Automatic annotation (TrEMBL):
Transmembrane segments: none annotated. Residues 343-388 are annotated as: Disordered. Residues 286-340 form the Peptidoglycan binding-like domain. InterPro entries: DUF4384 (IPR025493), Peptidoglycan-bd-like (IPR002477), PGBD-like_sf (IPR036365), PGBDSf (IPR036366). This is DUF4384 domain-containing protein. It comes from Azospirillum himalayense. Gene3D superfamilies: ABC-type transport auxiliary lipoprotein component, PGBD-like superfamily/PGBD. Residues 392-471 form the DUF4384 domain.
Amino acid sequence: MAFEATGIVRRTGFERVAAAAALLLMGACVTSGEQATVAQKPKTPPVRTVSNFSEALRCMDTLMWNHGKRDIFITSNGIPDATGRVAGGTKEMLITAVSRMSERSNAFRFVDFEPTLDDVNALYWMIGVQPNFRAPSYYVRGAITQLDDNVVSEAASAGISLPTFDLGISADQVMSVISVDLNIGELATRQIIPGLSASNSLAIISSGRGADAGAVIGKAGLSFNVSLNKSEGLHQAVRTLIELSTIEVLGKMTRTPYWQCLGIDQTNPAFAGQARDWFDSMAPSQRVAYVQRVLLAEGYYDGSDSGQLDERTRDAISRYQADNDLIATGRIDFDLYQRMLAQPSGQKGPGAPRLQSVSNAGGEGLPRATPAPAGAPPDLVLSSDRGPQPRYRAGEALVVKVQPTANGFVYCYYQDAAGSVARIFPNRFQPDSFVQANQQVEVPPGAQKPFNLRMDRPGASETIACVVSPDELGTRIADRYKTEDLQPIPGATLADVVGAYGSIQGTNVRSRQMAVQVLPAVSAQR
């Protein structure tokens, strides 16, 4: 066997108009204001005006706490200025916004490193080596994408002149537009996740009014003038946009009703549609598990979040619906989901489930699942794209399929015909060893494989071995086995590696093996 390496954004509809209070000076120059206010204009009234998003960030912190979101590790290499005209500390603004959203809930942990491709590879080599290391799962990328000066420019003046008196007045207003776009990507695969994006704009207004007068008193001339000016701070507008966009993209990523923190009504068509998309994309078992967690927290249900819609769950749903002005059908529909989403319970019951990434790339930073109960450790179903007894011709690629029967941490190794052993899961493209119950993981992942497990020895017999445990054992295994993924472990056999996991005290370990047969050259020619 040989390891072989292989090689829209929807506009949100938010529009924010910034305005700043300015100083009124008589007969003097005026400095620009520092504090911008934001006029929020959702598609349906009412319109709410807030000075900044500090309160909204605190609201998001509470919202994350209520929805049980915690320990989601993210990173970013900053929000560059694609226009080349705004110099500001955008990365620090982003970090500050994330920090304020996590003070109580610990929803997000920001890992400070620059996620270039080389850094990503080096980062994931550390998994299982550094005991306290947590790799970020997601990264935030974006830019200041637009800065249009003088989008609207208005000026007017008038004057009158008499033999002994002159009077003139003038007024002008200039508006510029600045935009910020943010997206969320999976760090391991570098794939931007569809739908997790924000594109918001602010209008920056500078206006002024002036008056001047002159008069003659006897032989002495007298003149005076009055001016009123106000202008916006550009960098304050950037901070406001980054805070707003951070609220939006992280709210979408965690599927929490972030619009509540922006003062937008739950019935707003745009955000009701967002909630509908979330509901429609959930598997039936996920819907049931979500409802069970809310019912448990509210005291309507005393079972587990099994994802099974049994009679006890139906009865609890009916009672919840009757108490919340819904038709007591006992069924899970969008109206029930929207009501529960709008009125989340505090963490009186189990937290929200562990986030799983779209392409199963995951990350060490995602929250840990509760270990399986004592006496019922997870087991494995090990197979391939050609079943549990696969046969391949030389040159063909193997796809391993592994599925735990309960939440657990999975580690898989490949032994080739020469006896060399290498870890194939977790790997730099699938760094998270945690797998949910009955979730099937493919190695290598995705439709376009980042690497291949290609058969290269006709007639050889090779072996896959996977172990699973309710505890994370990658940091506890002997150091000699903590080598780089997809590379041979010096002097190790498959039995050595499996035995090393089994010898770790205080945990339950199950292992499964699968023989891989490479057809002889004669068979390959038929």
